[in-house]
DNA sequence: ACAGTTTTTGAAAGATTCCTACAAATAAGG
DNA sequence: CCTTATTTGTAGGAATCTTTCAAAAACTGT
């Protein structure tokens, strides 16, 4: 469904390209937007190769020809990574930083959307459905993600709770047993307290699901990891986007659980929704 | 900066087009994706007009020519049309629902990015900077948004706090004075308790910033409203996206505040970041 | 209704862009 | 060092696009 971003594909293929192909790749990657606007002749000249080389390059990446390639490239650019410096500039005014922050969030979401392992998602949904109890743990910014998850998952009639207190987390982890699921959220996956809690939980036979950075200590110790690789905060001004990616992944998981429950479960969700109606001003006034 | 979707533009212009132009428009709108893949000759034939007519049509919509038009159309399709009918289907499997949920979040973010009033953002940044105290209030899902905001804004050395308890909110609102800012987050803007709290706060001379739906009771009573219009949840399975949009808006506001503080404030942020280092496993092990 | 004017439209030729066949050049293998 | 395979470019042809210009249609006022 979601072909991965063309730019990523080219970047990944870079090492396996031959001389003229990689010249073409360089030119395209250095300014993909310009590439979509130039003719095959211009691009060939810029790369210092012949037109057919550019054409062959395009075909290598499953395009019918150069125009088709440009089309696909243009599409990738829309919600794909904007390579151009879209970092917040200290001199930016509202018109500058507002779209940049939205864009960077959108880009990261698109990245993860194309990279996330669907089989892992499935595995996690399985575990959540079978769980006797689910604990959502997180600290700091991930604490509010955990809280949001609780708010979402309690609707499934599962015994869910959420804790952003290290001591509570430790105690609960140590009393966990087989069938309990500890869903641990951490941006870095390197916070000692959090990793220790995961260790304790696993030692007691509980399952640990890590929503965290790949190859981190937390990822290593989890039963299943949902990898979220969000580019490091190079820019002092850019906010941390991983929280938001985490939230969306939790949305995905919740949807997975709902669908697995089947349509006979919908009335239950409806009931919860309706329970809030009396607290609201009606729409027509 | 962010031009509106080409498809919408064409649809809007439809009534003002002449005979052959509208024929072309019809063909394009009926299957925009096919249009991006066909040549000017094919399209002309399909529409029953001449090639130059198609060309003129393209130029009318600010394209350099037909190829350029196709490019722009293709771009619009990525974040535009996909919107339609990308609802989660009860029979979807992981490969189905995962990208859909990411897409719907991304689309909503893009929508708000293009719609949000920059001058309002500026106003709110002003108020936040001048505030004697800032309270972030929210209930339910908005409660965790408020918590996230607290986590973000306390770094600015401002007296910030966060409350997701109605009684606390009421009491604090009633003791507020001029110079206090109550930042109230609500998806619907119609929860009675929340609106009442806003009323109390305003009655005592405090400023109320509403991050909520436009034209809602909460929006009406706020000093400044940041409108977030996220399409109603028509689909039972689609998760609520407004939380995420709210978070990103708070990121924007935080960035605004940081920039307004100027570069001499960066060391302070750095200090907070570094305070967490000892709690982490280092990256090289 | 009709001549004059403006607008809309398409035929045809011209310009551009793209693709294919083939041969030269380079690299790899024995 | 020769053979074979791969890579690269030249040249010409094919397709696509654009412009010009004149015919057709629509509009205007008389």
Report on this model:
The structure is a homodimer of 285-residue chains. The first copy, chain A, is α/β, with parallel strands linked by helices and 285 residues long. Chain A folds into 2 domains: 6-78, Orthogonal Bundle (Arc Repressor Mutant, subunit A); 115-273, Glucose-6-phosphate isomerase like protein, domain 1 (Rossmann fold, 3-Layer(aba) Sandwich). Chain A has helices spanning 6-13, 19-30, 32-37, 40-47, 51-60, 66-79, 94-115, 118-130, 141-153, 166-175, 192-203, 217-221, 242-261, 266-275; strands at residues 133-137, 160-163, 180-185, 207-212, 224-227. In chain A, β4, α12 and β5 (224-227) form a beta-alpha-beta unit. In chain A, α2 (19-30) crosses α5 (51-60) and α8 (118-130) packs across α13 (242-261). The first copy, chain A, starts with 5 loop residues before the first helix and ends in a 10-residue tail after the last helix. In chain A, 46% of the residues are buried. Chains A and B meet through α6, α7, α8, α9 and α11 of A and α6, α7, α8, α9 and α11 of B. The first copy, chain A, binds a DNA duplex (30 and 30 nucleotides) through α2 and α5.
Largest interface between protein chains, with number of residues from each side: A-B, 77 and 78 residues
**Global outline of chain A:** elongated
Low-pLDDT residue intervals, each spanning 5 or more residues of chain A? 80-85
CATH architecture of the largest domain in chain A: 3-Layer(aba) Sandwich
In terms of quaternary structure, the protein is: homodimer
CATH class of the largest domain in chain A: Alpha Beta
Q: Helix proportion of residues of chain A, in percent?
A: 55-70%
The neighbouring-strand order within the major sheet of chain A is 2-1-3-4-5
Number of domains of chain A: 2
Range of strand content of chain A: 5-15%
């Amino acid at each position: 469904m979601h072909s991965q971003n063309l730019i990523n594909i080219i970047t990944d293929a870079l090492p396996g390209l031959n001389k003229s192909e990689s010249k073409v790749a360089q030119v395209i990657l250095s300014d993909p937007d310009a590439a979509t606007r130039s003719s095959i002749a211009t691009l060939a000249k810029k790369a210092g190769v012949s037109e057919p080389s550019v054409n062959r390059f395009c075909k290598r990446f499953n395009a019918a020809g150069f125009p088709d390639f440009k089309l696909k490239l243009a599409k990738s650019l829309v919600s794909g990574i904007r390579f151009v410096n879209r970092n917040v500039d200290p001199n930016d005014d509202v018109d500058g930083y507002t779209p940049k922050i939205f864009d960077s969030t959108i880009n990261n979401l698109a990245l993860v959307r194309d990279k996330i392992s669907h089989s892992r998602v499935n595995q996690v949904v399985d575990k959540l459905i079978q769980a006797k109890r689910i604990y959502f743990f997180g600290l700091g910014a991930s604490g509010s993600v955990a809280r949001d998850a609780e708010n979402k998952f309690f609707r499934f009639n599962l015994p869910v709770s959420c804790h952003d207190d290290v001591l509570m987390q430790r105690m609960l982890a140590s009393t966990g047993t087989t069938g309990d699921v500890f869903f641990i959220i951490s941006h870095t996956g390197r916070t000692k307290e959090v990793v220790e809690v995961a260790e304790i939980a696993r030692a007691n036979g509980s399952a640990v699901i890590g929503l965290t950075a790949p190859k981190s200590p937390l990822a290593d110790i989890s039963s299943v990891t949902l990898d979220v690789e969000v580019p490091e905060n190079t820019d002092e001004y850019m906010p941390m986007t991983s929280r938001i990616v985490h939230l969306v992944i939790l949305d995905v998981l919740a949807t997975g659980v709902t669908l697995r429950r089947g349509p006979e479960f919908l009335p239950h969700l409806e009931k919860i929704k309706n329970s809030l109606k009396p607290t609201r001003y009606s729409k027509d006034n």
